[in-house]
Specification:
single chain, alpha/beta, Metallo-beta-lactamase, Chain A, 7-stranded mixed beta sheet, binds zinc ion
Length: about 270
């Protein structure tokens, strides 16, 4: 069996697959027996948030959290050609070491990692054995070209635009990806979207936006703010992610409508008409 991308409509050039849709602790949470954490609905099991983009046969990964390896196995991620990191929180980076398997199966291909300058500096600090320098000591480590992002850049034939947002104290970007005439923006961890960033999100086909829970939270979007931003951006389709254990998938469908809750393994064509 191949990856979910194999099941996209014939001719799809721009696809997306959710590797995880959960908040930092994941759902189920350790030691919780609430109705969501014990739900039999597979869509209520949420790994740490990550998105896999299919760009004409090449793959861009947005965030490599602690569940990255398990998700690659479960969803049969076929390859990784580039990685972009939104911010330096553990739930978005602590699976980064597992990128090395893709270096190996792709014949030693060096994989670029794009992120904001502070995030890159932090990645180098947290993973000091990963560097751009030649591998002299035979350590099995990821082969990475760290690339600080200070503005729009090209990756795998796509134009990628960083979308600066406010999320606690960490330098945090969402990313807008324009490819084959279609566009998707991914903002998994957000508290406030500045006006200048909203201006970069015009004309989107797909918006993927943080919705943590209904109750207020100091660093994340909650239901009313998510609904409000989604209405302002007015993408053709809006999906939400980075959920806590407060609501079941079935409850999220009602709470978010006309926006949609994503779930782990959801795969779709961004270039669907
Ligand atoms: Zn997060
Ligand atoms: Zn729970
Ligand atoms: Zn975060």
């Amino acid at each position: 069996m191949g990856s979910p991308f194999d099941n996209l409509p014939e001719g799809t050039r721009f696809g997306a697959l959710f590797l995880g849709t959960g908040t930092s602790v994941g759902v189920p949470m350790i030691g919780c027996d609430c109705p969501v954490c014990t739900s039999a609905d597979l869509r209520d099991a949420r790994c740490r948030s990550s998105l896999c983009l299919w760009l004409d046969g090449r793959v861009l990964i947005l965030d490599t959290g602690p569940d990255f390896r398990a998700a690659c196995l479960r969803w049969k991620v076929p390859r990784v050609d580039a990685v972009a990191i939104t911010h330096l929180h553990a739930d978005h980076i602590f699976g980064f070491d597992d990128v090395r398997r893709f270096n190996t199966i792709q014949g030693g291909q060096v994989i670029p990692c794009f992120a904001g300058p502070e995030t890159i500096a932090g990645m180098r600090r947290i993973f000091p054995y990963i560097s751009d320098a030649p591998n002299k000591i035979g350590l099995y480590r990821p082969l990475i070209a760290f690339t600080p992002v200070t503005g729009p850049f090209e990756a795998l034939g796509a134009t990628v635009t960083p979308l600066p947002v406010v999320h606690g104290n960490a330098e945090t970007f969402g990313y807008r990806v324009d490819f084959a005439g279609y566009s998707l923006a991914y903002l998994p961890d957000v508290h406030v979207i500045p006006g200048e960033t909203l201006a970069l999100m015009r004309g989107l086909d797909v918006l993927i936006l943080n919705m943590l829970r209904v109750r207020p939270h100091p660093t994340h979007l909650t239901l009313e703010a998510t609904r409000d931003y989604a209405a302002r951006v007015a993408a053709r389709r809006t999906l939400c992610t980075h959920f806590s254990h407060d609501l079941t998938h079935a409850e999220l469908i009602n709470a978010l409508a006309p926006n949609e809750p994503a779930w782990d393994g959801l795969c779709f064509a961004v270039d669907a008409p």
